[in-house]
């Protein structure tokens, strides 16, 4: 029988309210300062469940995501060091969140992929997948 490869995933959600302006004519009216609520979803993935039979403890995953989002909450991202001089698009915001999450994981995490997605409105979402 062929060996099946399983991808076990755990997803936790949170949201942030931010302000930003996208300083590029490409973005039309969004060049002006405006607010956004981003629904952020972090998915952790591994090929084999850990000895507890989980991808990751749900509470630990939620706390990790919340801690990474805290410095972004109610901030004007035009003034945030990670985005000064760049348009803080949803794609760049989730790449930043993914980087911060990857940095914050314990060294023995055993995960192989991390995905961060954000929904800015019900019709539009972006995602980034990072191999760990
Ligand atoms: N790929 C992306 N496109 C856009 C982003 C983004 O982060 N990634 N962000 C914006 C604005 O910040 C805002 O969310 C929407 O602005 P809006 O002017 O309403 O843009 P739309 O594309 O929805 O509508 P238009 O018809 O182009 O005005 C914009 N795009």
Describe the protein.
There is one protein chain. The chain is α+β, with helices and mostly antiparallel strands and 132 residues long. It has one domain: 6-pyruvoyl tetrahydropterin synthase/QueD (Tetrahydropterin Synthase, Chain A, 2-Layer Sandwich), CATH 3.30.479. It is built from 2 helices and 5 strands; from the N terminus they run ββαβαββ. It has helices at residues 58-69, 90-104; strands at residues 8-20, 34-46, 75-76, 113-121, 124-131. It has a 5-stranded mixed sheet with strand order 3-1-2-4-5. Helix 1 crosses helix 2. The structure holds ligand LPXRUNBV. The site of the ligand Nc1nc2c(c(=O)[nH]1)N=C([C@H](O)[C@H](O)COP(=O)(O)OP(=O)(O)OP(=O)(O)O)CN2 has 10 residues, from helix 2. Its cofactor is Zn(2+).
In brief, what are we looking at here?
Its cofactor is Zn(2+). It is built from 2 helices and 5 strands, in the order ββαβαββ.
Index terms:
metal-binding, EC 4.1.2.50, 6-PTP_synth/QueD_sf, zinc, binds the ligand Nc1nc2c(c(=O)[nH]1)N=C([C@H](O)[C@H](O)COP(=O)(O)OP(=O)(O)OP(=O)(O)O)CN2, Tetrahydropterin Synthase, Chain A, alpha+beta
